[in-house]
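=== RUN LOG ===
request id: a7f3
mode: sequence -> structure
chains: 1
length: 205
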Amino acid sequence: MARFLGILNDNNDSDIDRYNPRFVDDNIKLGVNYKRFSKEPVIGQNSFIRSNSVIYNDVVIGDDFRTGHNVLIRENTTIGDDVLIGTNTVIEGNCTLGNNISIQSNVYIPSNSVIEDNVFIGPCTCFTNDRYPVRVEYDLKGPQIRRGASIGGNSTFLSNLEIGEGAIVAAGAVVTRSVPPYYLAIGTPAKIKPLPASLRVPNMI
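=== RESULT ===
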């Protein structure tokens, strides 16, 4: 069970409908108890959670949260206001997401990732947090996606990269190094180029 702010209240008043139309209660799991004394998730007002989604304990989500179907959000994750998480997207534990973010379908976000405000992430994007998978001991570090960045679909990222404020990553890019603010990463492996002036504008999310 989760604690909802504005959908399910803490007082269980009879005039509050558990099956609010903004809460699609179809095989949804809210509050996976992954360890002793973990706390139920807190979800803000005006949320819309679609079928087969799973949200672990120790998750805090702001207002106007929306998901597609079959979304997984693991423990110790914080999500701000007005965030969309697309169908089949996985957010592993210990992640921080800001406000006004649009994440499309089939995106993988590993543990220890940071996504700042006003970011767009296209479908089938894959971020990683382990530079040498299962070969050496490595401090797992996901990406840091800075404010206003835009990530094209089917792009792939090595671990511990910073995508700068307002940067764009082209669809299908394989990003092996950090991208400075207001630069473009394009190709395989991605080449880094300055953004043209026409694209140095805010995301329209």
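=== NOTES ===
The two ends are 31 Å apart (CA to CA).
The first strand starts at residue 3 and ends at 4.
=== END ===
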